[in-house]
Design a protein that fits this description.
By secondary structure, the chain is α+β, with helices and mostly antiparallel strands. It has helices at 7-10, 14-30, 58-64, and strands at residues 51-52, 81-84, 90-94.
Length: 102
């Protein structure tokens, strides 16, 4: 019996792999650091960059995060993330208020 192999069932989607990679990167980046020893990438009061390669502290997240798209989700803020597979899998955390779409 020759059964066709459905590759969509065997291999995770690109979105699932990117999400897993981002979560693993964030988990590894945290290491054993505490919030007291983490270094912010964005200086408070400085001009907001278009992106950063690392979120070093909650202040970085808050600076780059956008407001929720749906007002019924208060506090549901997010930062847009780009995994550039053509640039050695570099990770970019975008200014999500400035760039509404990827």
């Amino acid at each position: 019996m020759n059964a066709k192999l459905n590759t969509n069932q065997v291999r995770p989607s690109v979105h699932a792999r990117v999400a897993l990679w981002v979560l693993a990167s964030l988990w590894l980046a945290c290491g054993n650091e505490t919030t007291a020893t983490m270094k912010c990438e964005i200086d408070p009061g400085a001009a907001l960059p278009d992106f950063t390669h690392r979120l070093g502290c909650l202040g970085d997240f808050n600076a780059l995060a956008s407001a929720p798209l749906d007002a019924t989700l208060p506090g549901a803020r997010s930062v847009k993330v780009v995994l550039d597979q053509f640039d050695k899998d570099n990770l970019y955390f975008q200014d999500s208020a400035k760039y509404k779409i990827h």
